[in-house]
Write the structure tokens for this entry.
Amino acid sequence: MDAAFTEEQDEIRRTLRELLHKRCGPDDVKAACRTPAGYDEGLWRQLATRLGLPGLALPPRYGGVGCGPTELALAGEETGRALLPAPLLASCVLVAPLIAELGSERQRAGYLPRIAAGELTAALAVSEPVGTVLALTGRNDGAWSGGGRAGGIQARQAEDGWRLHGQADQVLDGHSAGLLLVAAHTGGYVRSRTLLFVVEPTGLGASGLTRTRLTSLDETRPQARVELRDVAAVPLGGDAGPTPDELTAALLRTGGLAAAVLAAQAVGAADFALSSTVEYVRVREQFGRPVGSFQAVKHRLADGYVRVQAARSAAYYAAWAAGGGAPGESGGEDGIGVAGPLALAQALEALNHVAGESIQLHGGVGFTWEHHAHLYFKRAAADELIFGPVHRLRAHAAQRAGLFDAGVLEGAVA
């Protein structure tokens, strides 16, 4: 494994940091979150046209840049530093890879170039916890993907095509996405399985679609409730769709990529929270001397620094594993299923710790809702609620690695 970054990778990081520094300060973030879209649409278009951010990891034949998970993770680290509210995670990390891997050629050519250009945003709507669906906190080949279970989202084939019924909660960017990728049960009790369906909210058959933006802990990650009542849909990859094993494997790989990017975003957020705290304690005085000169404060900041650097190494390794690793090394699906959840768990813990310390060390001003430290603390808490919790991320990674008996782990995390 070569840990050195190329000039192109360093340039991606530098350019993105400079642009976000100018356009995405704490006040800009708060204002963008409270728009109907939940993000600054002008900035998103600029990121698409100037940097090609939405298509960074998409193939050039579909309008992408042709980079890989490492470049996407580096971009995620910079967007995490600024807490950029944008459809990057939902559109480019969760949906675009699934379309690229499982979609028909017509679907790829129809949707991926528009996603890469920043013209189309997308969201993944699932009725189960997304951490389980992406194989981050549990096996994704169980009840969620079939078994004739009632509830969730059901698909039936009518004379005029497929129709969906059901509800999905906590859909990231679901209120504004121009395309929904919906996981739905089909096949009845005996042959039940799950397929992914494409739903266009502005299409003719989407009259039964209701999307409600929810109040979320972290406003930079807007969520929505998606209700489907006889909504027209098209299976991803055609009527036959992928086999259950193909779908499970695709979701595992998407989960590995998502975990790497999320871990990188948490590292970027933690790094900024730590550096801003260091700057503050250098100038804030108590008892006639800077707060940062006290040994106890130095120890707390040093502990945070070690946590951030360790999490950064884990996030980079997870991105490398998501890209396939190297022959004979721990890349591939086994590496993805272990490295991704472990990196995410470590990064979320680091962000949670550093953000909490930032609030404490900023003193009275740090406890006001107006201070930016709360934005970072909310990001840590919300990401763990959506994709964790941390102990389940670690337990599932340990189970995949074969470290402990599955029954022992189930009792430990219950």
